[in-house]
Design goal:
By secondary structure, the protein is α/β, with parallel strands linked by helices. Helix content is about 25%, strand content about 20%. The protein has a single domain, classed as 3-Layer(aba) Sandwich (Rossmann fold). It is built from 10 helices and 12 strands. α7 packs across α8. The longest helix is centred in the middle third of the chain and has 14 residues.
Length: about 350
C-alpha cells in the first residue's frame, strides 16, 4: 500500500518523495526489514518501527492523520485488555471502549478511527463478522455510526485474495463529513458482480472497474470526478449508469445512500434482507464487468439499523496487500503525507 500510494501521487503529476512522509509499526522484525527494503527499492523513505500496535503507539498517531489505509488480521483473540485500559476514553486510542468479546476487530477499527484528524479519512478491509456482530461489539458499532464516521461500505465477491477466501468488507470512514449533506447517511455499494475472472479460483479488478467504483463514491460525495485510473472505459461506464452529466442517484443492485433507522421502503434489488440475482446488477454493468453469483445477502446491522444492508461473500481490498502478522497501513498528513503500518 505504501508503494501504491506513491504511484497514485505520481499519476497525479506530483513528486512522491516530496509529498510522502512514511511512518509505520509492525510486530515482526523480519516484516519491518522487508517493508524498509521495499520502500528503498521504490525510491521512498520511511520511519518503520517494530512494535505491537495494540499496546504501543510509537508515532503518537492519535488525531494526527489525514488518511489511513489498512489490511489488518481478522478475528484476533487473546489480546491482553488489561494493558489497554489507559488507552480507553475520549481523545485516546480506543475512544469507544473495549468489547467483552475475545476478538480484536473493534480494536483495529478504533485504532484507525482515532488516528484520523478532524477531517481525516480511512479505508480498510475488515471481516464480515464485524458488520453484524452483536452484544458489546454492536454497541461499539452504534457509537461509531453515531459519531458520523462511517461513510461508505463496499461488498465485493469471493476469491479476490490469492491465499485465502475469507469473507470481508471494505469500510471507509470520514471524520470530516459532519456538517455536510452526507452527515447522516452511509453509502452502500454492492460490487460483488464486478470483477475479472483470472482463473477458476482467482478474481481481481481491472483499472476500469476500480476507476468506476471510485467515481461512484466521488459522485456521492459531490466531488470532482477523476478518471486517472480506468480512463475512457471507466468514464463511459459512469456515463452509462449515471448519465452524460453524471449526478449521484441510488441504483438498484449497485448503490444506495441510506440513513440509520431509515424505515422507508427499499427499492427493488436493495431489500434489507435479500437481493435477487436478477436485480443485483444494473443494466450495462453485468454484461461488461461481471458474472453475478447467486448468494442471498444478509443485513448489515448496527445498534441503529442501517438499510439497505449487504452481508457480502469473501471480498478483497482495492489496495495491494502484503502478508504480515499485523496490519499494513498508510496514513497521510496534509502538510506532508505520512504513511503508517498500524
Amino acid at each position: 500500500m505504501f508503494v501504491q500510494s506513491a504511484r497514485f501521487v505520481h499519476e497525479h503529476r506530483k513528486n512522491p518523495s516530496a509529498e510522502l512522509s512514511l511512518h509505520g509499526q509492525e510486530r515482526v522484525g523480519a516484516t519491518v526489514a522487508l517493508s524498509r527494503m521495499n520502500l528503498a527499492v521504490h525510491g521512498l523513505e520511511g520511519d518503520i518501527r517494530e512494535a505491537n500496535s495494540y499496546y504501543e503507539d510509537l508515532h503518537k498517531s492519535t488525531d494526527s492523520f489525514d488518511f489511513v489505509l489498512a489490511n489488518p488480521p481478522f478475528n484476533v483473540n487473546a489480546v491482553d485488555k488489561d494493558r489497554l485500559k489507559d488507552a480507553v476514553g475520549k481523545n485516546r486510542r480506543y475512544p469507544f471502549g473495549l468489547s467483552r468479546t475475545d476478538n480484536a476487530n473493534y480494536l483495529w477499527i478504533q485504532l484507525f478511527y482515532s488516528a484520523l484528524n478532524d477531517k481525516g479519512r480511512a479505508g480498510f478491509v475488515m471481516a464480515n463478522s464485524a458488520s453484524d456482530a452483536r452484544a458489546s461489539e454492536q454497541e461499539l458499532r452504534k457509537q461509531i455510526i453515531e459519531a458520523r464516521a462511517v461513510d461508505v461500505m463496499v461488498a465485493v465477491g469471493p476469491n479476490m485474495f490469492y491465499t485465502v477466501t475469507l469473507p470481508c468488507t471494505l469500510w471507509f470512514l470520514d471524520r470530516g463529513k459532519r456538517k455536510t449533506p452526507r452527515e447522516d447517511k452511509v453509502l452502500f455499494i454492492d460490487a460483488r458482480h464486478i470483477y475479472r475472472q483470472i482463473d477458476r479460483a482467482h478474481r481481481d479488478w481491472t483499472e476500469a472497474q476500480i476507476g468506476f467504483l471510485a467515481n461512484v463514491v466521488l459522485l456521492y460525495r459531490d466531488e470532482e470526478l477523476d478518471f486517472t485510473l480506468g480512463g475512457d472505459e471507466a468514464k463511459a461506464k459512469t456515463s452509462d449508469i449515471f448519465g452524460k452529466k453524471p449526478k449521484y442517484s441510488d441504483v438498484p443492485g449497485l448503490c444506495r445512500a441510506a440513513a440509520p433507522n431509515n424505515s422507508r421502503p427499499t427499492p427493488s434489488g436493495w431489500s434489507s434482507r435479500s437481493t435477487s440475482a436478477s436485480a443485483r446488477a444494473p443494466s450495462g454493468i453485468k454484461t461488461k464487468f461481471t458474472s453475478s453469483d447467486n448468494t442471498t445477502s444478509r443485513a448489515l446491522r448496527s445498534g441503529a439499523t442501517i438499510s439497505p444492508t449487504v452481508r457480502p461473500k469473501p471480498i478483497a481490498s482495492m489496495l495491494e496487500s502484503t502478508k504480515t502478522s499485523m496490519a499494513t497501513g498508510v496514513a497521510f498528513c496534509r502538510s506532508s503525507i505520512r504513511v503508517a503500518a498500524l
